[in-house]
Every structure is written in structure tokens, then in C-alpha cells.
Amino acid sequence: MILGSIVALVTPMFDNGDVDKHSLKKLVEFHIEQDTDAIVAMGTTGESATLNDHEHMDVVKAVVDYVAGRIPVIAGTGANSTSEAITLTRAAKQVGADACLLVTPYYNKPTQEGLYLHYKAIAEAVDIPQILYNVPGRTACDMLPETIGRLAKIDHIIGVKEATGDLSRVSAIRDLCGDDFALYTGDDASSCEFCLLGGNGTITVSGNVAPRLVHQMATAAINGDRETATSIDASLRGLHKQLFIQSNPIPVKWAVAEMGLIHKGIRLPLTWLTEDCFDIVRSAMQQASVL
């Protein structure tokens, strides 16, 4: 089981929106040096929605190659078409990803039975570890704990990224799925408490900016060290809040560019962070001793 801080990696781009492989390699080395426990390539924070399938898998393959087995790489392969999700998941296995992260189908709003059959079809089609991803704030689709419990019984489905921020779901999912099922939070603001309640880690946006601190917080929380975890998390609260002052990944890409790690590139329909937010995000970075 992958434990700890799993960064939802931004995808570096040039001003024209082309992927910047040189900066991508630099980011991978930065995260390994800063003790990030695993990398998600091509999740929501990686702008998966605006890269075509070739670009998507090219980024995943590049991250796998750059990491070279030093930490796990999880590929975002979700889609609102089951056949497309199967295709992306197969491709991720072929390029060497260690696991896949599959967001609930967005926009088409399936029923709970539709969700069950969607994930069941992917798990039966591709023998790679698969992590469910529930983020109703973006998808207009909430996968309920009972559905997660049903899916946990299927081979290859090993965990869930639960991004509702509802901490009552930690115990509910754990009771339904057992101790061997990985529970990750996708909500930075409640990640410390999530892990203290029995979660196995955080798939984090804040970890792009303060990876070592997020790693230390998550490790302490998973080990039940509330005092250490909450003390570290206090310095991260500004990032947890202000990296969402505009739609993710707008603020986090600005912050990582401010650190000198990437160029100022993002793809429409997302736009660069507006100037009135610069000092707000910069202050949160200073609170975390990043700047």
C-alpha cells in the first residue's frame, strides 16, 4: 500500500501551452529530493481535461521514465466514457505506471449502479491496481460509501481518493472496505484530520508547493502523532485555502512558477492567476516558509 503524501503533480507548460518536458523532469527530481511519497501524473491538477490522449500518455510515460522506480507513479486515467477509461488505463499499464487513479464519470451523472458497473468493467479489463476517485464538487456525481464497499470486493480495486471533505466517511468506508483498502483524501484542508482518523495518505495540491512539510504532516498523522501533525499542518493552512482561491490548478501553477520550477503556461479555458491574488498566495507560501 502506498502511504503518505502523494502529489497531484502540475503539468509544466510553455507560454503557448505546449508541455515542457525539461521542467517536468526538474519537478520529478524536486519531489524525490523533498521526500514526496508518490506522484499522480495527469490528474485534475495536471490539466488532464485539456490534454489529448497522446499528450496525456506521453506525460505519464515521461514521469515514469524520470522517476525510474524510485517512488510509485499513479496515472490519472478516469473518463466519463467507460471505454475511454479502459483505453487510458491499458495505456498506463503499458508505459509502466504502478497504479491508476480513476475519477467518477463527470457531467453525465450516472446512478450508483452505473458507477459500480463502470468501475467493475475497468477492473475486469486491466490488471493494474486501481484507485477510485470521488470529487462531487467537480463531477456533479457523488459515489456513496456503500458503492465503494461493493467495489472494494473486486480484484484490482485497491483504494479510494475521497475528496468530499466529509470526515465521517473515513470510518464509514473503512468499516465497509476493511483495513487492506487504501483511503486517501483529496481535500487538503482536512487531510491532517483524515489521516489521524485512519486514512492512509493525501493526494495533495499543497504538496506541489511544500512537499517536505506535507510529507512530514502526513507521516505524523498516519502514525497517530497528533501534536506533530497538527503543528506542521498549522503552517500549511494558508496553502490549503489559498491554492483554491481560483479554480485548481490556476493558483498552484502560479505558486510553482514563483518558486522558479516551471514557466507561466496554462491551457484554456483556464487562465493565469489574476494579479489581485498574487499577494494572497504569496503570503500563504511565506507562512509555509516556501518563500
Task: Describe it.
- Strand 3, helix 3 and strand 4 form a beta-alpha-beta unit.
- This protein has a single domain (4-234), classed as Alpha-Beta Barrel (TIM Barrel).
- It has an eight-stranded parallel β-barrel, surrounded by four helices.
- The chain is α/β, with parallel strands linked by helices and 291 residues long.
- The longest helix has 17 residues, at 226-242.
- The chain has helices at 21-33, 53-67, 82-94, 112-125, 136-139, 145-151, 168-177, 191-196, 211-222, 226-242, 250-258, 278-287, and strands at 4-8, 38-41, 73-76, 99-103, 130-134, 157-162, 182-185, 201-204.
- The mean pLDDT is 97.
- Homotetramer; dimer of dimers.
- This is 4-hydroxy-tetrahydrodipicolinate synthase.
- Pyruvate binds at residues 45, 203.
- It is found in: Cytoplasm.
